[in-house]
Amino acid sequence: xxxxxxxxxxxxxxxxxxxxxxxxxxxxxxxxxxxxxxxxxxxxxxxxxxxxxxxxxxxxxxxxxxxxxxxxxxxxxxxxxxxxxxxxxxxxxxxxxx
Length: 98
Hints:
The protein has 98 residues and is an alpha+beta fold. The protein has helices at 8-12, 28-36, 48-53, 80-97, and strands at residues 17-23, 41-43, 61-66, 69-75.
């Protein structure tokens, strides 16, 4: 799923925790990981205003949102297992705090 300036805000204001991948180039590994984890993508070249709003300077950057607010950032990509683990740890910590 691709997010753009028109649908981004609606997506991140979900009551659920949601993740987003901010990307510059779509390598096969990144595409596979975002597909496996069902992460929508924002192309920062095509949607620079969305990236600037959240201070995205490097890619890939993964952001976890809760009710429209960023609650976790991860810069860089190792593999899908590492990314899934990061998201799960963040989610577990946020659920524990609330």
